[in-house]
């Protein structure tokens, strides 16, 4: 069993629901190799579960993650770092590989590897007291998994500023940069994230996964879109959706998730 990660899956077979992937390593939810590996394993479990329509990723009521476990990194030699880099990079990007829509519910601090993890979610909801940043440069390192995704999200200029300076960003600036999608009161972070995720419990699962795959394809998105679009013609939801549109108009489909 995982030591730091819990996974709450929807109960019952009647409908698809929202899974909650939560990690806790008190007091500051620092990310070490074990925690990141456990997150990746939980993400893989969610991805394979047809009962999951969307995923909320949550740290702690007080802090999402204050960053990397620098004490663990301090003792690494270059050979050890090279050996673990690929796995650690892959694990930090685990949320982007979940085919269902994902939302990170962020409280307190979201720094270093914690922000790199959250960048893989489809949406980020933060409390208005949250500070975000990639301060790895101040330890003589760089973000392992987040630079490219950050640049795609907010543009290369602002991304370079955050990475080169390692400075913290508060809620208003984070929203203005496009680093986060929604700012709410600190006590409402989890509720707001769950509200967004629940939109998809009756959605066309295969089409949502296809759209996410195209977004993730980046510069190869046009090629990926052709394959994903044509593959959807094999799904029940495509027949349901197009049929209901023709008979009853948009928004009338009752999808089955297949």
TrEMBL record:
InterPro entries: ClpP/crotonase-like_dom_sf, Enoyl-CoA_hydra/iso. GO terms for molecular function: enoyl-CoA hydratase activity. The keyword Lipid metabolism applies. Keywords: Lipid metabolism, Lyase. It is an enzyme of class 4 (lyase). It comes from the Bacteria. Belongs to the enoyl-CoA hydratase/isomerase family. This is Enoyl-CoA hydratase. One of its GO terms (biological process) is fatty acid beta-oxidation. Its EC number is 4.2.1.17.
């Amino acid at each position: 069993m995982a030591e730091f990660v819990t996974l709450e899956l929807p109960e019952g077979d009647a409908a698809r629901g929202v899974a909650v992937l939560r990690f806790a390593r008190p007091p500051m939810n620092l990310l070490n190799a074990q925690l990141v590996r456990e997150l990746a394993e939980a993400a893989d479990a969610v991805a394979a579960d047809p009962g999951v329509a969307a995923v909320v990723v949550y740290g702690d009521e007080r802090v999402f993650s204050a960053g990397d476990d620098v004490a663990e990194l301090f003792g690494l030699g270059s050979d050890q770092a090279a050996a673990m880099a690929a796995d650690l990079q892959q694990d930090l990007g685990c949320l982007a590989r979940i085919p269902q829509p994902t939302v990170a519910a962020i409280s307190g601090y979201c720094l270093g590897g914690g922000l790199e993890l959250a960048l893989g979610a489809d949406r980020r909801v933060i409390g208005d007291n949250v500070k975000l940043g990639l301060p790895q440069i101040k330890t003589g390192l760089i973000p392992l998994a987040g630079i490219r995704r950050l640049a795609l999200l907010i543009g290369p200029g602002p991304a370079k500023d955050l990475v080169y300076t390692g400075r913290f960003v508060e809620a208003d600036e984070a929203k203005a940069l496009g680093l986060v999608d929604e700012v709410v009161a600190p006590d409402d972070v989890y509720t707001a994230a769950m509200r967004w995720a629940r939109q998809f419990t009756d959605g066309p699962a295969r089409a949502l996964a296809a759209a996410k795959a195209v977004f993730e394809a980046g510069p190869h998105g046009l090629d990926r879109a052709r394959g994903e679009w044509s593959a959807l013609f094999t799904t029940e939801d495509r027949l349901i959706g197009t049929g209901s549109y023709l008979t009853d108009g948009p928004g009338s489909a009752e999808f089955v998730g297949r």
